Amino acid sequence: MDVESLRDYCLSKPAVEETFPFGPDTLVYKVGGKIFLICSLDHETFQFNVKCDPEKAIELRERYDCVQPGYHMNKKHWNTIVVDGTVSNTMLKEWITDSYDLIVESLPVKAREQVKGKK
């Protein structure tokens, strides 16, 4: 996975917004105004942050070397994924989808229904 395929995948999700609120080097994807993925464009290695269930976050960190506590994020709820080729693109997409779904489910009912209506 590279930044272009990450972008395409994120934008394929319903109601996703692409923003640069932290400057031109930090790509942010939101749904319902809430962040589900952050990608720094100025790191030597391609990596991104995704939200994760706290128990699953720990499990993934223990199982995969490419999964680390969220860089500059709440480490209980966020993981940094280093795209180093050790896990498949399918798994990376699964983690992105999990993050997206967590955010959608946390939205107020009306906003959640609007997002789900766009599927």
TrEMBL record:
Q: Which InterPro entries match?
A: YjbR, YjbR-like_sf, YjbR/MT2646/Rv2570-like
A Pfam match is YjbR
| Domain of life assignment | Bacteria
Query: Gene3D superfamilies given for it?
Result: 3.90.1150.30
This protein's name: MmcQ-like protein
To which species is this protein native?
Niastella populi
